[in-house]
From TrEMBL:
Residues 4-79 form the Carrier domain. Transmembrane segments: none annotated. Pfam families: PP-binding. SUPFAM superfamilies: ACP-like (SSF47336). This is Acyl carrier protein.
């Protein structure tokens, strides 16, 4: 899957499911500060990612993510691993 499609899908569900202001979603924005999600929201996000991309993110994955770019890259890498 192309990165642009990953970014579009992720941004769409963040805006629609988690009510994030789309203007605040930039590659270098801090993921946790921008999203302001609690632990239950992260569980919901894992479910949405799994249903959209067929990959699962764990707690260790989220700990490594600082920016939205990190988030997109992690999903991209998980998809590549799954398809390898």
């Amino acid at each position: 899957m192309e990165r642009e499609k990953i970014v579009a899908i992720v941004n769409d569900f963040l805006v629609n499911e988690f009510e994030v202001d789309g203007d605040e979603i930039t590659n270098d924005a801090n993921l946790k500060n921008t999203l302001g999600l609690d632990s239950l929201d992260y569980i919901d996000m894992v479910v949405v990612i799994e249903s959209n991309f067929g990959v699962k993110l764990g707690e260790a994955d989220f700990k490594k993510m600082v920016t939205f770019d990190d988030f997109y890259t992690t999903i991209e890498n998980k998809i590549a691993e799954k398809n390898a």
